[in-house]
Amino acid sequence: MEGIRERKARPVSEHEQPPEDNVPSQHARAQTGWPVSRLLYTLVLLLSTVLYLFWKTNPGALIRLIEPWYDLSEQLPGVSSPEYAFLGADEVRRDAVVDAFKHAWFAYERDAMGDDEYHPLSHKGSNLTDAGGIGYTVVDSLDTMIIMGLDEEYRRARSWVDTKLTFEVDGIFNVFETTIRVLGGLLSAYHLTHDSLYIDRAKDLADRLMVAFSTPSGLPVAMVNLGTRTPIPDTGNQNLVSTAEVATLQLELRYLTELTDDDSYWRAAEKVMQVIRKAVPVPPLAAIYMDPQQGTFVTSPIRLGSRGDSYYEYLLKQYLQTGRVETGYREMYDGAMDAIHEHLVQRTPHTNFLYTAELMPERTQTHQMQWRLVPKQDHLVCFLGGSLMLGATDGGHFSVPPRAEEFVGTARRDWTTGYELIKTCMETHRTHTGLSPEIAHFRTKNDPQAIADLAPNDWYIKGSRQPTAALDARYILRPETVESLFIAFRLTGDSRYRDWGWQIFQSIEKHCKVPTGGYAGVTNVDIVPPELEDKMETFMMSETLKYLYLLFSDSSILPLTENVFNTEAHPFPIIRPTGRTAFT
Ligand SMILES: *[C@@H]1O[C@H](CO)[C@@H](O)[C@H](O)[C@H]1NC(C)=O
User: Which residues of the sequence carry a binding annotation for Ca(2+) (predicted)?
Assistant: First the structure.
């Protein structure tokens, strides 16, 4: 002990004695260099004034100026320590999430067991159609109970599926929503239990949905009557289909083919991808509407939010689901990410936050088509942060945390954008409730507000100060930010993502929890106490609470290298290559 103390003490005392020969030379310099130091002083003063004025008028540019230089010495963005990753559970926070799930589930089971949707303020359930429910909430919640180890709750839910669930319902259902929530929920329940009940139900449902694909192009129509097995075009939308809706059925149908050895599901899903690959323009940015007669894109907005989002998600995940062998999907994904970086990724002028804008088609007075950039981002886009990081690490196949040298090509760009986007999504949680709005608008350089206001927020919620708040100001229990935090944590083992997720969870507990049971969305994230909406979306139990639970769980649970999560957070296994590779 004493030896150590001595050794430590010595350099300090050496330091305290000023080297003798330096003293005179310093004096000499001070005497002869007086005009030089005055010149220097003036220069420094001038430079700081210029920098200060520059900062005042355009701080974003200054940050951008020093960032690449700063980056040289910095390791990978979003990783605190290149050596250290903690992958164990945070039991206290994890168990708090389980309590939240029980609070949600018990209220639903008490008031509305079996109904499609739950209204926690009026303590009632409702169905999507008058003809009866199809297990929207029960089936969507099954795998969360299995993952959380809630055996009693799960047993009762399984029994409901076994004895009550029927798809013989003479009502009209959305093909995409039914696929990701109900078919996806059944398939992941099978994946986690190997209980054949779920394959039987999944096959029955899929067989009813398959009529949607009977269009000239093979793109499925938006809706189906499950009882009569009739395709129902979306007449309200000129019979068009959403890009995200037709391109977010593939993980589910491919897994079902794997389980049943019936090629028809996989073929129908794959046909959609072939049609899209042929129709996609250069640069490969997909408009949000397609024509199922022609199999072409129609002039419509380009965005990563609603009706666009999960198209991009499933490009990457189809490549991951098929064991990273079918590179055709990866090529489409990489092309789309290049185009997104070139045309949609933007920075805010003051704080340099990264976001993705939307492109709106417009006719000029001379009837020319042109695209207008709209600086707004849906909360839905927050999935993209984690998705980009997942793609950058080839599905989590890098070290944890990744090492800088593992990134080749555009991977480092995607990783950095992904992390920056997560930061922006966290920034949009800086509201009075700590919850993020449905849609965030961003300031641009030319925005008069941004120029006038020198210490501004770089983003705002449209209409949040009006008495009847716009739909933009809502938070409806959406999962996309915590989904990205879960992926980022799994890839890095960095505690910042858990801390951010915990902040969000606490805001949900504080503002969305209904004392009598269940959780409700809020109508305006900037009003405290918020006004609650009488609805608990099914993705609260299937996604938001599942991703939070997994964020705080041991990383060996459902590893990303062995599972792929569908867009409703239902995990499926990675499929070994089977020779079913018509696409590539
Ligand atoms: C929903 O549908 C189920 C099954 O058809 C039925 O038992 C239930 O009463 C319906 N719920 C409501 C609120 O109408």
Answer: 567
